[in-house]
Amino acid sequence: MAAVTLPVLIDQLVSGLAIGGVYALVALGFALIFGVLRAAQFAHGEVYMVVAFLVLAVLPWFPALGPLQFLLVIVTAAIFGAIAGMLIERGVFRPLADAPHIAPIISTIGLMILLQNLVAYLKGSELHRFALAWPQGNVSVGPASVPVLKLVIFGTALVIPALLQVALTRTQLGRAIRATAIDAETARLMGVNTARTSLVAFAIGSALAGIAGVLVGALYGVVYSTMGVTALVKGYAATIIGGVGNLVGAVAGGLLLGLFEVFVASYVSPRWTDAIVYTLLIVLLALRPQGLVGRAIPEKL
Amino acid sequence: MSRRPLRWVSALVVIALLVAGCGSPGNAADSDEIKIAVVGPMTGDAAQYGEDFTRGAQLAAEQINAADGVDGKKITIVTFDDRNDTTEAASVAQKIATDSSIVASMGHFTSSTVYAAMPIYKSNQLPLVVISASDPGITEQGNEWVFRVSPTNNLGAEAMADLIVSKLGLKKIAIFYLNTDFGKTERGFFTARVQANGGEIVLDEPYQPDAKDFSSSIIKLKNAGADAVYLSSYYNDAVLLIRQAKDAGVQTRWFTSAAVLSPQFTEIGGEAVEGVITNRISQGDSWDAVAEAYRAKYNDEPSPFVIYAYSAVQAVAEAAKNEGTSRQAIRDGLAKIQGLETALGPLTFDENRQAVYESFDYLEVRDGQFQLWQP
User: Fold this and answer.
1) Contact A126 B236 (CB under 8 A)
2) If you count Cβ atoms within 10 Å of the first and of the last residue's Cβ in chain A, which end, N or C, has fewer?
3) Cβ count near A75 (within 10 Å)
4) Which of B213, B239, B251, B271 to substitute to test the interface with A, most A CBs within 10 Å?
5) pLDDT one-digit tens code per residue, A215-245
6) pLDDT band, residue B11 (cuts 50/70/90)
7) Residue B203: closest CA among B235, B236, B227
8) Which of A89, A287, A250 has its CA nearest to residue A164?
9) How confident is residue A66, by pLDDT bands cut at 50, 70 and 90?
10) Which residues does residue B36 pair with via DSSP β-bridges, in sequence order?
11) What is the mean pLDDT of chain B?
């Protein structure tokens, strides 16, 4: 292995932040939905997968407009994701609102299996090529030359959570969502339409998953029917690292996870990446169940 | 419904099975047929391979029989199912070997099932022709009843190492390999041959079967100073690796295991896999004719296993023609085969009864397709 030089380190850092950014978006959506509904959305990864396939299907109709096309792809993914999220909220969560907590979990696991198999049946379980016309090529960052795509993905994964943070703190609807997350019953008594906030939270969370799906498609150059499983596991892990229900923590957790994976693969071996990452996750859960970033809030599980 | 008829039927079935199981005694050499057992996975998730074996053997038998057989004797194919299971392979081999009307056996799909069955063929003195299992050790055990027409898995990797290092003069090689038995074995053969040829492995990088993100490995590749990269990969991993490396600006020459040979490789790879080089065993002149007959009969594209099975029947027929139709005669006849024209091309067994493969076709991806390439 070549010596560790500054260009190599920068290259690794950018790779870690790009894939970490994807994990961050998945984790953020997962945490948002969990915060408001107090239930894990196990089909979250399938939203990411289905949106990636839907965007792939409409991609040929997109005009080649460089960065503008990229923006259009992101917006389309967000819309597809939001629609999917609202359908899932209405179809799978709402009818079970008063059922025991385990019920929506089981039904989203069912949805996860259904969507995976449906896509595999319709499109086949092989890899499907996914390529965006922009961004391409490399750019100099200090002494290193890194792919523009990775920088753009990382940038997207910073801008979107920042926008979300503003929306949650500065708008009426955002405050309603936060109030519902803190205590749904009290929020309802205070006049918050919790049915609507949970629908909106679901739409936003799933839009984030959809964006992550197209970003990872562009990053790997392919989409496939089981890609949601990895996304769910990594997103869930990132949520745990950051502290369950903690939005800033979810983003930090995603970025940390991505960086950690790249550095373990680089300096230990790709063969051991998952083993080491998940061992540390278990250790972390034992030592700091509230996550690295979060404070201990027992009622948030 | 009365139980009685059912009981009679059952009794008849049992008797029929017993008779079939025992087979007719002795006199195989005097019989007017040459009975060959085809054994492999006929049920289960590997059944496609068993079907390839059967169809290839049947096609060869029909064509030979249509041309008056072997000195007037017809070739008959009987199939047996070992379910791709080692225990079952041993017991099926026992069943085949004790049927004295059978004068040769061919098949068992994997190396594990061949290993389980080999000693039984030896102790019963029945020749076995291996038509797919690729572990080199099978023909290195001194079992003089076991022949193999298909290539061993070291050959392709070693031919590639010769091409890259000796013919093209690329000395600094990076290797990526799938962290499974397949990838690890192939990597071993490739690495040893590269070093024997005076090349140097500058990057030796395993990856997990479900890997999709090769970023960290590609950064290593970027900084390894490799003249060439060899991939012990199946097509989907190979496509991802090459595409992601090219996206990251890596400039090198790409070579892969024959395992990538699939239309999917070029379909998903697109322009990223243009110029990638792989190899396969050279196809004989009659390969196309056999493939054509196969398409006409089964309306399907023949796999290499069809061709191996077809060639195995040709070899047994040739042995019977030259030495006689007893088990011993067929074994001796097989051992003497030199340059027999088969669907695979000229077939010669070496002293270990392994078919000799010297020439490989090199294929380059050009205009979205694998095309013949001359170094």
Assistant:
1) yes
2) C
3) 12
4) B213
5) 999 999 899 999 999 999 999 999 988 887 7
6) low
7) B227
8) A250
9) confident
10) B77, B104
11) 88
The structure tokens 């092989």 sit at A126
Tokens 């679901």 — which residue? Answer: A202
Q: Do B216 and A136 touch (CB under 8 A)?
A: no
Strands B146-148 and B172-178: unpaired
Task: Find the range with the poorest average confidence among A122-136, B69-83, B85-99.
Answer: A122-136
| Of residues A2, A11, A19, nearest to B213 (C-beta) | A19
| H runs (alpha helix) in A124-246 | 148-170, 172-182, 184-189, 194-220, 227-242
| Nearest alpha-carbon partner for B349 in A260, B357, B341, B18 | B357
Question: Helix, strand or coil for residue B119?
Answer: helix
- Nearest CA distance, B248 vs chain A (angstrom): 6
Residue A77: HSE in the Cβ half-sphere, 13 Å Cα cutoff: 29
Q: Which amino acid, A119?
A: V
Q: Residue B99 gets which letter from DSSP?
A: -
Spatial distance between the Cα atoms of A79 and A81, rounded to a whole number of angstroms: 5
Burial of B291 (0-12, 13-18, 19+ CB in 10 A): middle
Q: Chain A closest CA to B197's CA: distance in Å?
A: 22
Q: For residue B369, what are the β-bridge partners? A: B366
Mutate: best of B219, B235, B246, partner A, most A CBs <10 A: B219
CA distance A109 to chain B (A): 22
pLDDT of residue B356 exceeding 70:
yes
Indicate whether B360 pLDDT > 50: yes
CA distance A225 to A223: 7
Verdict on whether the full-model pTM lies above 0.90: no
Using the predicted structure, report yes or no on whether residue B193 has a pLDDT greater than 70: yes
**Cβ-based neighbours of A292, under 8 Å, separated by 6 or more:** A241, A242, A243, A249, A252, A253, A256, A284
Confidence band (pLDDT; 50, 70, 90) for B2?
very low
Closest residue on chain A to B222 (Cα): A8
Q: Which residues of chain A have a Cβ shorter than 8 Å from any chain B Cβ? A: 1-2, 5, 8, 11-12, 15-16, 18-19, 126-129, 131, 136-138, 145, 147, 149, 219-222, 227, 230, 261-263, 265-266, 269-271, 273-274
